[in-house]
Known about the structure:
- Helices cover 31% and strands 16% of the residues.
- By secondary structure, the chain is of the alpha/beta class.
- It folds into two domains: 17-182, Nitrogenase molybdenum iron protein domain (Rossmann fold, 3-Layer(aba) Sandwich); 190-334, 3-Layer(aba) Sandwich (Rossmann fold), CATH 3.40.50.
- The strands form three sheets. Strands 7, 8, 9, 10, 11 and 12 form a six-stranded mixed sheet that branches. Strands 4-3-5-6 form a four-stranded parallel sheet.
- Helix 6 (190-212) runs parallel beside helix 9.
Amino acid sequence: MTISSRTLPRRSFVLGAAASAALMSRFTTAQESSPEASPAGIWSFTDAKGITVSLEAPPQRVVMDVNAAAPLWDFGIRPAGLFGWNVQADGSLGDAGGNIDPEGIPTAGDVNEPIKMEELIALEPDLIVTLAFTPDDLTEYWSIDAEAGLVDQVKAIAPIVSIPVYGRADENIVKVIELAGLLGADLESEELVAAKAAYEESEAALKAAAEAAPDLKALFLYIGDSESYIAAPPDWADISMYQAFGVNTYDPEIDRGLYWLTISNELALTYDVDMLFTSTRSGSIAGDELLTTPGWKEHPAAVAGQIFPWNQDFILSYQGMKAAFDVVTDALTTSTKVS
Length: 339
């Protein structure tokens, strides 16, 4: 998978005759579940794009992109199937999968072909859940290629709802909680009440750590063998949130929507920062590997051992956000000024 959430390789998929027939057999059902056809449906959710999906009954079979499934899993919601860029060819999910146990969960797509129509049809979903990076683009859905015509094909099978991953992560989690409740989560369960309290405690600790270390500057990036990709905070809901909490983060000040500034690793020393947060996605050089990576191995933050993991597929649950908070808090409380 490419490292950017916006610069994805475009793959097309042509439906076979059998898949086309199956899709058309479900077309009426999916259309009847649209807001226009059933405004009085007893189940209704307005998603990240402001689109309201109403169903005549609560959805029982929900197929999810792994990035959407991970936070919902922590609320007790189990997917009928998984798809998406972060499903690896061997079925593993990496850090994007959070606490998901993939054993026994069928997949309808993976890193090589994020959504496979025949497999999706076979899962007979009532609802499909994925992410939205751009609220105003009604054709943009994570892992569903609009240019290949897949959005309309998927909507003919079942309605799509999206979770927001733009703006700030601490605000986006509210939408996840709402969807989880509508899908049957017991938000007042002892486990979730405790998880919420731990989340709030970790958030407070992070804000205190940021206030105590305003001069420590953080750089979030994905590191390749010869090039690195520096994350632009306004495009990343987690980094944007950290900035709002007071964390001093490096901003390459590129145009919004580009997500990354690409640099040669030879330029590493030109970035005066104190903490390196390196992506945990497959293919990124991280941790002690930086100490043997040309350019970065000489960086003062790397030499000082101030290298920390960054799950760029941050998980919008109490548990997932707490884990992210704790990493940044640890960095702020153990690092020293080296820039």
